[in-house]
Design a protein that fits this description.
The complex is a heterotrimer of chains A (about 280), B (about 270) and C (about 300). Chain A is an all-alpha fold and about 280 residues long. Chain A has one domain. Helix content of chain A is about 75%, strand content about 0%. Chain B is mostly helical. Chain B has one domain. Chain B has a two-stranded antiparallel ribbon with strand order 1-2. Chain B starts with a helix and ends with a helix. Chain C has two domains: about 210 residues, P-loop containing nucleotide triphosphate hydrolases (Rossmann fold, 3-Layer(aba) Sandwich); about 60 residues, Alpha-Beta Plaits (2-Layer Sandwich), CATH 3.30.70. Chain C is built from eleven helices and 14 strands. Chain C starts with a strand and ends with a strand. Classes of the chains: A mainly alpha (about 280), B mainly alpha (about 270), C alpha/beta (about 300). Chains A and C meet through helix 1 and helix 5 of A and strand 1, strand 4, helix 2 and helix 3 of C. Bound molecules: adenosine-5'-triphosphate and magnesium ion (MG). The site of magnesium ion has 4 residues of chain C, from helix 1.
């Protein structure tokens, strides 16, 4: 608009002396979306009880306890953990955070853009693109947090953690994993024209990571090139962090894991706002 | 009038016969599907990844199991279970999520039923589609198993029809259940059935892990029936359990398809 | 309220709005008319501060949408051409939640929501899911929603599409009242009677440009004759017959289903048609309306 060549010749430019306009900050705008997300939550929480709260438990029971029984008979200790249950529990915690986070920012974003067009309703109000992204991501993180808290408490009951500090460290790591997945996947969804891409994200991203990023067996059991690929995935860093928390085997590599996940989350945020803007503001 | 009642009736019957029937719906689904060959390939990936992760990766930690008195490698043990699970998952996906979407949102069947096609054509068409697609995936997975030397008997040839049968059973049942669903939230119930079956139906460890009533429950689940059937065929250790499974799965699929047809008629032709 | 100069909008290499000048004054009702694809919605979306102009200048409520989009939107009511209701929420929830986006306190939103539901006769459906509403009810809800923040400027993109006659009159009544309260209205419509009734001034757009501007009466006077004779012939004969009646009117418009003869005396023209031995299936003589202006400006006139 400021480009003078765009102005129509022979006319005085329109008055540009703009009055003082104070716009509310992102936090205030988040507050305005609270009612919306609360309503969404009330309506949908029942539908996610199984996959968010029960599923990790079923995996713990089947793999950790039952299959773990056979594994512990065959070997003593897996990847630094005394039992297979100790090994798999933090892995599943990280994996759950990943799955909840990605699920919350795939179909719901597509719905708000394409089926219901709720985002278009929102952008017609004082809400800005950043506010919409922030609102949706905050809700996704709320879901990640509730799933992670329930899971961690249950793990505490079966004695996975030896100290409250370990529990908090694992929980914090899980939240970080959630954030590191939510923001880039949100960016993907914000620009996606069809929901077909989600199947690909799931099949080529989420599922292989779930299976090979050290949640179920140590990545050192993979062949060398595959092991290196596994070590590059964000889930591997998350699993390692969670496991350091629950086994209390801290070392300096934790800094690398945290940095990796934080950078990913920040990049994701930036892309998310950018892609949603180019989708909504045309 | 020169046109007699019988000619009218006959031309009506001809129209009836000429209409597409279930194959017409298969054709529709295939047309949509063709555009997404990437999905075809990646859908095939899922069971293979599970095989490598749990069967090979975790398998390295386990050792093996005894099956009908014979020592079996963990990978040999898990692979047939993955085949049966893949057949189940594929069939359930097609017959629940996709059918629900077409039924409630895309209104595909409203359009189909506005033609000479009837609810039975829709049910048979969708179940047929799920079975067909599941069959292709199963064949691919079997090839992977063959290449890895995980099929140790000529009985293994029958593993493909067995997997198709598992697909049929779950497609029929899934479609019938879908006609009762009102919102996406109800799909949680499907998950509630699928995930425990996947984890506990003697897929990753032998059924002898359980005892007493629990074992009876596990043995009565459809996925267990499928797993037993495919596993016995792939390992060549065939027993009467396989026969039980075949009857069980056939009945389940047929009952489901018939119920689905009736319910579709009730839902759409009102 | 709205000032646009040389306003342009392009999507890639395609120019939907190709430099228009518009000025909407406080308190008036302003209309955009034009055939499908003329660029009306594109213009409305720029004014609504959800679509950045590709060129020219635009001020809405004396603010620049590029800088103060959020503040402008806070004072606007927008009824988009396509409903953007949340289909999974109930009717009332849609209003409540939307009102909160404007930062209106809950209690106040609830009061306004109930008032609007009452006015648009959606009270019975207040707890129904939007999914279960009829098309026209959804439209009414979208319009009600656009009023939740007591806007100073109301943008309505084809508000009455899909409404039954009662609902249409209900909306007109509401719009008259809002205008009396000083609310500025900008609307697009394909119903000429609506434009004639509602708009103080309007522009006709075609191909991204403004082709005429004025009050409904001015436009009729300028671009149409006093009366119009309509002739209907058997299917497919209209083009061929147009030449044979061309000299009977100032202008002849060929529509797919009829011929329009623009003249000062419609009855007289019809009599002359019959004298020539032509036998139309149906005839009608009437006063010219905005529709004739519209057809003239955006249609295909054979003889002028
Ligand atoms: N997002 C978009 N991307 C590409 N082209 C667009 C987009 N939006 C509108 N157009 C094009 O711009 C032109 C004007 O569209 P617009 O929606 O403004 O028309 P309109 O006057 O509102 O028509 P109608 O009466 O059908 O609502 C059309 O050719 C349309 O295809
Ligand atoms: Mg339009």
């Amino acid at each position: 608009m400021s480009d003078p060549t765009e102005r129509v010749a022979g006319r005085a430019p329109l008055d540009t002396a703009t009055p003082e306009v104070v716009e509310p900050g992102v936090a205030a705008m988040l507050g305005r979306q609270l009612d919306y997300w609360w309503t969404v939550f009330r309506r949908t929480w029942k539908g996610s009880v199984v996959s968010y709260f029960l599923q990790p438990w079923l995996y713990i029971a089947a793999m950790g306890l039952l299959l773990g029984g056979y594994i512990d008979d065959a070997s003593s200790g897996v990847g630094g953990a005394p039992t297979y249950l100790d090994f798999i529990a933090p892995g599943l915690l990280a994996a759950t955070a990943m799955q909840v986070a990605t699920g919350e920012v795939m179909w719901p974003v597509m719905g708000a853009l394409k089926w219901d067009k709720t985002y278009y309703g929102m952008i017609a109000t004082p809400l800005r693109v950043v506010d919409i992204v922030a609102g949706h991501l905050a809700f996704a993180m709320f879901r990640v947090a509730s799933a992670a808290v329930v899971f961690v408490l249950a793990l505490a009951v079966i004695g996975i953690f030896s100290s409250p500090l370990g529990l908090l460290a694992s929980l914090g790591s899980a939240l970080l994993v959630g954030l590191a997945f939510a923001t880039p996947v949100y960016a993907f969804s914000a620009g996606a024209r069809s929901e077909q891409g989600f199947a690909l994200i799931y099949r080529l991203g989420v599922m292989p990571m779930f299976l090979f990023s050290g949640a179920f067996f140590p990545v050192s059991n993979l062949s060398e090139p595959l092991e290196w690929m596994a070590r590059l995935t964000p889930l591997w860093h998350g699993v390692e962090l969670c496991r350091m928390g629950s086994l209390e085997t801290w070392d300096s590599t934790a800094v690398v894991h945290v940095t990796y996940l934080l950078v990913l989350a920040a990049l994701g945020c930036w892309f998310a706002v950018r892609r949603l803007r180019s989708r909504l503001v045309v | 009038m020169a046109v007699s009642g019988t000619t009218l009736a006959r031309s009506g019957a001809a129209a009836e016969r000429r209409h597409g029937g279930p194959p017409a719906l298969l054709h529709r689904n295939f047309t949509v599907f063709k555009r997404g060959w990437v999905f075809f390939l990646t859908g095939f990936l899922e069971p293979v990844l599970y095989l490598f992760s749990i069967g090979v990766g975790v398998g390295a930690l386990v050792g093996g199991f005894t099956l009908h008195g014979q020592e079996v490698d963990y990978t040999d043990f898990v692979a047939p279970a993955m085949l049966a699970t893949a057949a189940m998952n594929g069939a359930v996906m097609d017959s629940t999520y996709n059918v629900f979407f077409k039924l409630r949102f895309q209104k595909t069947y409203d359009a189909v039923l506005a033609t000479p096609m009837g609810p039975r054509d829709v049910a048979a068409g969708e179940v047929g589609w799920a079975v067909l697609r599941g069959g292709v995936y199963s064949a691919g997975f079997l090839l992977v198993m063959l290449a890895m030397g995980l099929v140790s008997s000529w009985w293994g040839l029958l593993a493909l029809p067995a997997a198709v049968l598992v697909g049929f059973a779950f497609a029929g049942a899934g479609m019938a259940l879908t006609t009762f669903m009102k919102s996406w939230q109800h799909f949680e119930y499907i998950q509630l059935a699928l995930i425990p079956m996947f984890l506990f139906s003697a897929t990753f460890f032998p059924v002898t892990t359980y005892d007493g009533a629990l074992r009876w429950v596990v043995e009565a689940t459809p996925l267990y029936r499928g797993v037993v059937l495919v596993r016995e065929l792939c390992t060549g250790l065939v027993t009467v359990e396989s026969a039980v499974s075949v009857v069980y799965l056939l009945l389940m699929g047929a009952a489901g398809t018939m119920l689905a047809a009736r319910r579709l008629g009730r839902l759409l032709l009102t | 309220m709205v000032v646009a100069r040389g306003l342009r909008k392009s999507f890639g290499s395609f120019e939907a709005v190709r430099g228009i000048d518009v000025e909407v004054r406080r308190g008036e009702a302003f209309g955009f008319l034009g055939p499908n694809g003329a660029g009306k919605s594109s213009t409305m979306r720029m004014v609504a501060a959800v679509s950045p102009p590709s060129g020219g200048e635009l001020r809405v409520l004396d603010l620049d949408p590029a800088q103060h989009g959020s503040a402008i939107r806070g004072r606007l009511g927008v009824c988009p051409q396509e409903d953007t209701l949340d289909t999974e929420l109930t009717v009332r929830e849609n209003l409540l939640i939307y009102g909160r986006y404007f930062g209106i306190p809950r209690r106040e939103v609830a009061r306004r929501a109930d008032e609007l539901l009452g006015f648009f006769q959606l009270g019975e459906k207040r707890d129904a899911k939007v999914e279960d509403l009829s098309g026209g009810m959804k439209r009414r809800l979208t319009i009600a929603r656009s009023l939740i923040n007591d806007p100073e400027l109301l943008l309505l993109d084809e508000p009455t599409t899909g409404l039954d006659p009662q609902a249409r009159h209900l909306l007109w009544d509401k719009l008259f009242r809002l205008k009396q309260q000083g609310v500025t209205l900008v609307l697009t419509t394909h119903y000429m009677d609506e434009a004639e009734q509602l708009c103080d001034r309007l522009v006709v757009m075609d191909g991204g440009l403004i082709v005429a501007e004025g009050s409904p009466l001015q436009l009729i006077r300028e671009h149409a004759t006093r009366e119009v004779a309509e002739l209907r012939f058997p299917v497919g004969e209209h083009t061929a017959l147009a030449d044979r009646v061309a000299d009977l009117a100032e202008r002849v418009e060929v529509l797919p289903d009829r011929l329009l003869l623009y003249t000062h005396d419609g009855e007289e023209a019809l009599a002359r048609v019959h004298e020539r031995g032509l036998a139309p299936v149906a005839v009608l003589s009437r006063r010219a309306t905005l529709e004739d202006v519209f057809l003239r400006l955006t249609g295909r006139t054979l003889v002028d």
